[in-house]
Each structure stands twice: as structure tokens, then as C-alpha cells.
């Protein structure tokens, strides 16, 4: 089996102020996605599915098709507001997509195999893709998914505090739940988070979720059932979103299977705000200078 990689690239990027998914950060204008796809190909992935908005499909394809032709199979999926809503009326003030799990639902016609999913604007590192490919090839099943867990110390920002999903893991290495922690930062030699005016120390090796999951074929039909219930309850809530982590959590709570947490020591970085861009460019420059990637990624 050659694993499939799904890339979530349909976000509005409102906080960033532009289309960060296709912004060049590498020496020759490579996007963060380019490095993810390069690592995925090296790890043995054979297909990449891009989830994008239809209004920028032409420019998106013209960016990626020439350099990926002959290297990996590509598919394009459009996340649309009216997808999977049935005969419901979408509120007039609803403009943003329904969320990341809805984006995966939009892949229903092109996904009939286990797959990994990542964010377009996060740099995950080669080791994560190797471990994801190995899991999909060797263990992934309808009742066994995986989360690639990053060491907290490798996901911090030099520019201030961060929010992270801290994994709760049982004795068998399976995910029990994810605690969303805001305001995580370094204080002296410690990593801490603040909540209700209390400061709690977190271990550097604490595993956190950066939304890098491996799912079996059962995920799409399960998510479709949950989305129907979500719309019944949330369709008129303007900012409601149908998220992957919440869907994964329901998979566990409904006792449909387990989600194994696979640890990686890879260094993560990403872009949320414009101020993050120089740091991302510097990190990629360092990786290129150290020989981790060629200066011209696609030759």
C-alpha cells in the first residue's frame, strides 16, 4: 500500500491577512506544503489530496502541478458550504467553512483508503511522515487510528505564549483525550501554562497534538454521521466549526476503537500571524544550510 496524504488548505487565513498556504518561505519560493510533500514522498506516500477553495483552484494548481508531475499522484477537493448540508438552509451570515472535519468529508469521493492528514501551514519534519507511513502500512484499521504526538518543547514560539492540545495517554500508549491549554510559555528553565491565575509546570517531553492524524477508511462515514447531528444543533451558530479533534474524541468515547499516540522528536514550526514569517524563513534556511533539504527542492 502507498499511503495517501491529505492537506487542509481551504482555511480563510483571516488572522494572517493573506493566503499563507501558497506563500513562499524557501530559498526558491517553496511553500511549507512543498516541504511536507517532499518529506511525504521520501517516506513512501503515493498520493496527495489538496483540500482547497474553488475560487483559488486555478492559481493553486498552476503552482503545484508542474513541480509534482511524475513525483506523486494529486487530487483536488473543494470545500463548499453547501456540501453535506442536505436540504437545510445555510444562514445568510455564514461565510467561513464548517471546519476541518467537514473538509475531510468533502474528500468522500476520492478517499477509499487509510490516510494521513495535516495542516497546510505547519512544518512537521521528516520523522513524522516516516512514522505515519509506517503506521498506515502496518497497523491502521477501521478500529485503530493514530495521532503523531510532538514533544511540547519542540513546538514553542520565541515570540510569546502558545496554545496546545496536551495529550492524555493511557498505559497502552492510546489517546484518552486532549486538554486544550492556552498561554503556554517558558519561565526560566521550565515550561508552564497559566489557567485561572494558577501556573502549572509541564514536562518538555509532554506530547501535544499538532493535528497530524492517521485515519482508517471508517473515519469518513463516521464523520458524516456526526456532521448531520452537528448541523441539527449548530447550523445557526455563526462561528461553530466541526473539528477533526472533536470527531476523533467521539470515536474514542463511542468505543469504536483506539487512537495510538506515536511520538516524534521532530521540530515543528508554523505561521499564524505575519510576524511568524521571518522565523519560518530562517528555520527553513537553516535546514537547507545543514543539508536536510536541497536549496532547490524540486530541482
N-to-C SSE series? EHEHEHEEHEEEEEEHHEEH
Number of strands: 13
Taken together, the total number of domains comes to: 1
Q: Helical element count?
A: 7
Shape: globular
Helix content estimate: 25-40%
> What is the CA-based Rg, rounded?
19 Å
Could you provide a short overview of the structure?
Helix content is 27%, strand content 27%. By secondary structure, the chain is of the alpha/beta class. It has a single domain (4-142, 211-289), classed as Spore Coat Polysaccharide Biosynthesis Protein SpsA, Chain A.
Give your account of this protein's structure:
Helix 1 packs across helix 4 (about 125-140). Helices cover about 25% and strands about 25% of the residues. It has one domain (about 5-140, about 210-290): Spore Coat Polysaccharide Biosynthesis Protein SpsA, Chain A (Alpha-Beta Complex). Mean pLDDT is about 90; it is low at about 10-15. With about 300 residues, it is α/β, with parallel strands linked by helices. The chain starts with a strand and ends in a 10-residue tail after the last helix. The relative contact order is 0.19.
Topology:
Layout: E1 4-8, H1 32-43, E2 47-52, H2 57-68, E3 73-78, H3 100-105, E4 115-119, E5 122-123, H4 126-138, E6 144-151, E7 162-169, E8 175-187, E9 190-195, E10 198-202, E11 207-215, H5 219-234, H6 244-253, E12 258-264, E13 269-270, H7 277-289
Parallel strand pairs: 1-2, 1-4, 2-3, 6-12
Antiparallel strand pairs: 4-11, 5-13, 6-11, 7-8, 7-11, 8-9, 9-10
Helix pairs in contact: 1-4
